[in-house]
Amino acid sequence: MKKLALVVFLALFILACQKQGQYQYVETKDGRDFFLNSGEGKVVYVDKSNRIIDYVDLSLSLDEVARIKKEKALNDSSQKYRSFNESQIAGTDYSAEIRTRFYSDRLLYKVTVSPYREDLNRNSSNISFQFTDVAGFTLESVEPKGWTRIVDDNGTPVALETNGRIPMTLENYLEIASRGLLWREWKK
Fold first, then answer.
1. How far is CA 147 from the centre of its chain?
2. Which residue has the higher pLDDT, 112 or 66?
């Protein structure tokens, strides 16, 4: 149903543009077909199914186009979540995985530590982590609170997990190159 609505919309759009004489259809050999409005300096790129791929306003300056493309690239990359590979916590037989996402000037994080044992539960308040840039400088340190036990289908605890958010700029989020797990002395 959605595909049909999109096809109908595009067909009507194309007909309206051709009727008004505003847009001229240009077919290229490399497959980058487009509609050109030379009066307003606008280009609408379409694929072979006439789906809109991109829209370019040629009346903008090159600096403005570059700024818009950079903003779009930053926004696109910020929408993806990042998962740092599961790694061993030094001096223990525990491993941890950290997943992050940027949303509304905040870094959202989720940390999972496994395997679950009671000493892990007792020492969860000793676990912290930090995000660093490519030069190894710390961008942010986090001491998570409120760990939750994750259970399997039989109700047996298998891991501890926490999540939270911290204020962060998009620029700092995109600079994160690695994370480090820190902990204080384990209680026996």
1. 24
2. 112
